[in-house]
Every structure is written in C-alpha cells, then in structure tokens.
Write the structure tokens for this entry.
Amino acid sequence: MSHWMTLPVVLPAMLAAIIVLSARFHMNLARTFSVAGTVALTLVAAGLFWRASDGTIDVYALGNWTAPFGIVLVTDRLSTLMLLLTSLLALPVLLYAIGSGWDKRGWHFHALFQFQLMGINGAFLTGDAFNLFVFFEVLLIASYGLMIHAGGAERLRAGVQYVLYNLLGSTLFLFALGTLYAETGTLNMADLAERVSMMGPDATAGIRVASVLLILVFAVKAAVLPLHFWLPASYSEAPGPVAALFAIMTKVGAYSIIRFYTLVFPPDLEITQGLFGTWLLPAALLTLTVGMVGVLGARRLDRLVAFSVIGSMGMLLIAVSVFTETGISAALYYALHSTLATAALFLLVDTVRERRGGIGARLQDATPIMGGPLVAGLFFAAAIAMCGLPPLSGFVGKLLVLDAARDNALAVWVWAVVLSTSLVAIVGFGRAGSQVFWKAHQVAATRADGTERDAEADLDNAPDPEPSPAALPMVAIGALIAGLVALTVAAGPVKRTLDATAAQLFAPEPYITTVMSTEGKDLSGYGHGDEGYGDGESKGDDGAHGGSADDTSDPEGH
Amino acid sequence: MELLVASAVGVMTAAGIYLVLRLRTFPVIIGVSLLTYAVNVFLFASGRLAMDMPPILRDGVENYTDPLPQALVLTAIVISFGMTAVVVIIALGSWLACDDDFVEAVEQHDPRTKSADRAPRGQDAA
C-alpha cells in the first residue's frame, strides 16, 4: 500500500486551498500553482497507470480501517486509465483557459478547477459507494462554480437548470444507496459484490429497485436519452474551457455504470438480467439518434457540439450495454477518443465564438475570423474525429463498437443506427463548418462590394483588441488533436491495454479479494473485544447477515 | 412507527416532486429541499427502525440500532444544505440578471409551451 494513490485526490485539494487562501489576488501565482499541480497530477497518474498496467490492484485503506468498515481507494487498470485521461485532458484545457484569458473573467477559476479535478479523481479511485456519492457532490459543486464562471444572464439561467437537475440526480442517488444499504448492509463495492452474489433468487425486489435506481442516476450523469435534458443548455452556455473539462464528467457516469455493473451486478447475475439488453441498449440507440439529429438541427455552433456529446455518449453506451469483454473494451476506446474530441471541439467553438465578435456562435453569415485557416483546419480534424470518419480515432472507435455488437440480438439495429447517424453527423458538421469558415469569404467579398455595409460589418465583427491571436490556445487545441492522432496511430497497443482492462473487469475476484483482505488497524481492542473484526471468518458471517437482511442489529459486524 | 416514517417519506417525496415540476425557482427550490428531507428520513430507515436502542457498543446491551445510516444522514444533510445554499445564490443571481424567476426562459410565460430542451430566451433554440 503506497500513499501515492491518495495524491490524485489530496494534491488538487491542497492546491485549491492554497490558491484560494494565498493566491487569490495574484493571477500569475494561481496560474503557476494550477499548471504545476496539473503537471504533477499527470505524472502521478502516469505512474499509477504504469503500476496498474501489469494487473496489480492496490488498495489504500483511509485511516487504516479495514475494507468493509472503512473507506478504501482502489487502483486497478480501469481507474488508473480514467485518472490518466482526466489529467491529460485537464492540462490542455487549463493551458487554453490561461491562454485565452478565461480564468481572469471571474473569481477563483483555478481553485474551482482543482476542486473539480479532485472530485473527478476521487470518483474514479474510490471503492465505496457512498464515497462515490460524496465525490460526485465534490465534482458537482465545483462544476456549479465553473459553469457560471464570468456570469451573464443566459449562463446563470442555464446554471440554475444545471444545478437543479443535478440536485435531483443526487437525491435519486441517495435513495439508491439507501435501498442498497437496506438490502445488503454494506456500501463497500467489493463487499456489495460478495453479498449480492450470495442473495437467493427470492425476495430480490429491493435489490432490483436499487440496481435500477443506480443505473438511472448514472444515466443522468451520462446524459442517456430520457435524462439528457440538462446537457445541451449547460454545456453550450458554460465557458469554453469549462465545457471542455465537462467532457470527462459524462464519462464519470459511464465509468460508474461499467464499474458497478461488472463488479456488483455482474452480467451473469440473475436479478439484473435484461437491464442492459432490454433497457439500456435501446435507450443508448435513441440517445445516439437524438444527439446526431440535434447536431443537424442546431442553429448555434456550441449547441451543435453539445448535441454531439450526447451522440457520443449514446455510442459509448451502446458499446457498454452490449456488455461483453469486447464491448467494454470498445466502449473504453470510444471514451478516450470522445473525451479528447469533444474537448477539442468545445475549445475550437470557444475560439470561433470569441473571434466572431457580436455574432457569437450562431450559424449565420459573418466575415472571416482571425487566424481562420488554422482554426478551420483544427475544426476539420476534430469534426472528422467526432463523426467517425477515417483516418482519425473516431473511425477506429466506431469500428470497434460495430464489431462488438455483431453477436447481439439487436445487432441490425445497432449497425443501422450507428451508420445512419454517422451520415447525419457528417452533414451536420459539414454544414456548420462550411457556414462558419467557407461562407465567411463569400460574405466578405459581398460586403467589400457594398461600401455602405462595411461599417456595419466592422461593427458586427469587431476584431479583438489584441493585435494577433495568442498562440497558447492553439497549442492547447493542437495538443488535444495530437492526442487523437496518437490514439489512432497507437490503436493497436491501446486496444491491447483496453482488452486487458476489460478482462480484469470481467474477472472481479482479484479485486474483491484484494479489497477484502487488505490488512488495517487492529480492531480487536474496540467494543467487546471478543471478535476478530478484520479476519475472513467474520466477513462470511456478515455476508450471511446481510443476505437475510432482517436483523435489527448492525449488520456491519457487531 | 413504520407507517409514520413510510408516509412521511412518501408525502414529502410526492410534494417535492410536485413542486419541482413548477416553473418558478422558489417552489422548485422548496421542492428540492423537501426531496432531500424525504431522502434523509429514508436513509435513516435503511438501517431498520429500532426504538430506544443505543447506536454505540456498550457492555450488557444486546440489541443496537445501526449507527452507519446516522453517519450517512449526517453527510447527506450537510451536502444537501450546502447545495441548497448554492442553488439559492445562483437562482438569485439569475433572477437579478434575467429580471424573472422562471427556471427556463418562456417567451409568453405560458406554461404549456414548456419544453425542457429549449435554449434560454428562445431565440436561439437548437
């Protein structure tokens, strides 16, 4: 047990406190702390990823309390992969926020950013269901602050909707956890897995309710169709870099689905049969359809990208809900790809929105923007990736999803929907891109003819006060696109790693054993002192207690 | 006791959901608060209802009430309290900035045209 694995949570938390307390009036100091912290976080995440890459599962018992009683942090292949993805996303986004000056437009951007990272990392690391709820709240409360960063009427209204929707989601999460605890008597995920697998086929109503409530909660986070309403307004109204960081937040929902439904409710468990095939897969297909139709119908560039997030979550969850090893592996590849692609698109949209002046992100005629060719080229690359056209990673991801769905009962539907929505997305992105980048030249030419319109055009499209566009934002976007290219070039090794990750997820016994057998504080001095609290035998008893679940005594082992 | 707790959870949830479906921020926030009260009571009940029993280990006591839900409820209360404060402040900001307290922009202020997915101000709907 090494203390390193607490760093992804502790480091941003300490940094955020330092930034709030001592660097709040010193923007450069706050920026330095924030960037240095994120770089350090990337290194730590890479280290943890490397350590877990041979299949090692590490458990950190917080306060040295053993697993079913205390909270544990667990690193395995999946959680370290997500940590690495988070930090690799956070660094370019942070550089963009600094380069574009977004962090100066309101208070406490860097502190909130670090708190957000703390919540996301914690959600990936924790091995305890209630702790997952707490980290969800940490990341949400930071995201509320980031969402309304720099203010504005539209943003505040979208912020109210976003906060209210997520408050309802949190309430639902608590109901799910309460049901889960009432049925099993534990909230430790490994312990839950043991106890749920021991449940008999009768009297499973409660645990079924809990499993459905949980998937609803994660579906809210992942913006699955009937629960996606919060996403378009909040993502399109949020500041560009914040929306880009939010690209990982929908993946937190997908991660939780994968984690819970491979570990606690594994696919061969009788009581949750049909949850994925009957419910989640059609919902994911509808999500993909609605997302891509939204891309086609959007009248603003930022909403177009927000809908493409919904579409990509649909695609991801199609792969998840196939629920085979190949499916999860494809889903993880698509998660890596779509996180980077949506982040790049949101940053590009923000660049376009800033440089177009008053017309903003609306898909209307306007004169060309500053640095148009470069921005257009990057947008082209990111859009290709998002639509899933060759040669970028979206194509590989889509191919993997299609391949994984081949043996599914709904394979025809999956193929039909995925392929037709790809076409819809291409048309949508093509229309938007040509409107913003190509038609601009035509508009400029027409406006140059009518001299009286020149003044208006200048007003409409007043260039930024800075003489030349800053380089740092373009570097940040370029880094994200480079990530996509790397993901494509290294698709083979990445896929092998993800296959191993999926294999580890589908064989949860080592995870459970490692968590449950980690030594901790000697508990024999507590209470009556006549029971070995930490050893394997009392755990078995606990399982039996939780299974019957009608005792008034504390099922946590007293 | 069971009936009292169950009906309290049920009534508070029903009232909360009804209020959340209103259009103005004030009833919606009250509704969310009611829902969090409901979930707190629900969490309490998830450790079984045990009357007049100690939640900590003592010599010579056979039956206990489950202490863990009490810790969970405490966390949930703190979090929901904080979140409610945040949503009140953001709603206040939105009210000051938009000059109305509608949860989403409604052009004619007609509840029937409510659609959860419309862009603020209506003019730039996707």
